[in-house]
């Protein structure tokens, strides 16, 4: 205790000194105090300098032991995963860690949760753990040290999200009338941004090439058609891919509404008393059409009714084809004439005419060379009504028809009579010699009863 007296004796003498300096000197040992007091008595400014140097030296000595051990990181994390972000500090002492989600969200101050986010927790008082991570947790996380803000570590998180598709319309069904415009879109989301591709399916075929008239807009996410046509019908499939998880896809069922488009076979048929004839009528339309058969002009709306001689049957082949058959048995004279296949749906009405005729069928004409200066012309005709006359017209190429013209009645009358009596096809032949072998001769055959005409051209 005796060694303390000099200090105690000095302290009263410092009462007249600057209080700041007095308090400063009280912290020295007796030996240092005497030295310091001497400096004060000799030069007060020197004491202040000593205080500054001593304080600075002490701070540097303390801070050199405070060090950030964790290093920054850039993380690509799958959605739903758990992430651990380290913030290891050497000699933290009484300093406090502060976790922030930039730009301004404070998560933890020390061990106190500020955000109160159940998915974010502190592990071992230092590391940040984020569970079941979602895209909203992407960004930069920084760990700061209180009073030493320059001492920090930053972690950057990129949450990888598999692709997903948001179709418009949501139902995936697009129904448009023929001739109208149409559009549908496939908006894709995900991280990184997905690439969208389209494919087209019709029946059993699939192609990456879209039908003509279909345009991709808005970065390929939307399809537009300025004027819808029947060939645009089908399934359009949209796929999105970003190399994260499985690709996403959705399909649009595109339906074009249109009036019936008809085909009939045959359009003209021979009829004879007691014979059986049959017509087929095919209608393509959307929605499928209802088909009826009528006798004569369809505007008169005289629909045929099934009977023991008249049979009608239909067959629907989804989604657009309706087939109908008309069969007439044991033909009568009153059955001859025209018939109409009439198809109707919600878009419109169409019809096609067919005919049962007692006149001759179109002539089947053939010709071939026969000898050095002649050729053989052969024709076949079928008629259930008597053939009265055959007429053959001959002319040179590019010469008026009136140059060579003669009736064959006297030549083939006996054959015509034979065909009429048999009521079946008969084949006839004749020979003709042109005046000049190097000329081209055009022959056409005309059969009586207003039958059809056939042409034959042969270089002789």
Automatic annotation (TrEMBL):
GO terms for cellular component: axon; neuronal cell body; plasma membrane. One of its GO terms (biological process) is synapse organization. Transmembrane segments: none annotated. It comes from the Eukaryota. Keywords: Disulfide bond, Immunoglobulin domain. One of its GO terms (molecular function) is axon guidance receptor activity. InterPro entries: Cell_Adh-Cytoskel_Orgn, Ig-like_dom, Ig-like_dom_sf, Ig-like_fold, Ig_sub, Ig_sub2. Residues 66-154, 163-255, 260-357 form the Ig-like domain. This is Hemicentin-1. The gene is Hmcn1.
């Amino acid at each position: 205790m005796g060694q303390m007296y000099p200090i105690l004796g000095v302290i009263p003498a410092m009462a007249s000194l600057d209080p700041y300096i007095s308090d400063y000197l009280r912290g020295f040992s007796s030996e240092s105090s005497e030295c310091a007091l001497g400096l004060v008595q000799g030069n007060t400014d020197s004491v202040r300098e000593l205080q500054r140097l001593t304080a600075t030296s002490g701070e540097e000595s303390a801070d050199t032991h405070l060090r950030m051990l964790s290093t920054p990181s850039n993380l690509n994390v799958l959605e739903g995963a758990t992430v651990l972000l380290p913030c290891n500090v050497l000699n933290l002492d009484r300093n406090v860690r502060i976790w922030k989600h930039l730009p301004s969200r404070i998560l933890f101050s020390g061990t106190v949760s500020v955000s109160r986010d159940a998915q974010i927790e502190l592990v071992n008082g230092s590391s940040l753990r984020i569970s079941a991570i979602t895209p909203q947790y992407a960004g930069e996380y920084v760990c700061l040290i209180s009073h030493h803000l320059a001492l920090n570590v930053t972690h950057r998180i990129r949450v990888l999200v598999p692709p997903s598709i948001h179709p418009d319309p949501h139902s995936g069904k697009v129904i448009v009338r023929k001739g109208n415009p149409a559009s549908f879109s496939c908006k894709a989301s995900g991280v990184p941004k997905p690439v969208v591709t389209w494919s087209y399916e019709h029946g059993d075929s699939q192609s990456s090439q879209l039908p003509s008239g279909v345009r991709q807009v808005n970065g390929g996410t939307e399809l537009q058609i300025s004027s819808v046509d029947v060939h645009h019908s089908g399934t359009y499939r949209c796929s999105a891919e970003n190399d994260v998880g499985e690709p996403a896809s959705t399909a649009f069922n595109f339906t074009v509404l249109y009036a019936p488009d008809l085909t009939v076979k045959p359009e003209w048929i021979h009829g004879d008393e007691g014979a059986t004839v049959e017509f087929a009528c095919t209608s393509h339309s959307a929605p499928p059409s209802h088909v009826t058969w009528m006798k004569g002009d369809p505007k008169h709306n005289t629909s045929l009714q099934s009977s023991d001689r008249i049979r009608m049957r239909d067959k629907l082949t989804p989604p657009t084809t309706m087939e109908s058959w008309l069969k007439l048995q044991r033909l009568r004279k009153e059955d001859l004439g025209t018939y109409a296949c009439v198809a109707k749906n919600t878009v419109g009405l169409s019809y096609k005419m067919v005919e049962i005729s007692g006149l001759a069928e179109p002539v089947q004409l053939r010709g071939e060379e026969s000898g050095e200066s002649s050729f053989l012309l052969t024709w076949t005709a079928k008629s259930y009504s008597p053939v009265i006359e055959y007429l053959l017209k001959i002319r040179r190429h590019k010469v008026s028809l009136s140059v060579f013209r003669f009736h064959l009645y006297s030549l083939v009358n006996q054959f015509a009579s034979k065909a009429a009596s048999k009521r079946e096809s008969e084949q006839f032949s004749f020979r003709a010699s042109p005046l000049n072998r190097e000329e081209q001769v055009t022959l056409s055959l005309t059969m009586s009863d207003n039958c059809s005409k056939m042409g034959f051209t042969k270089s002789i």
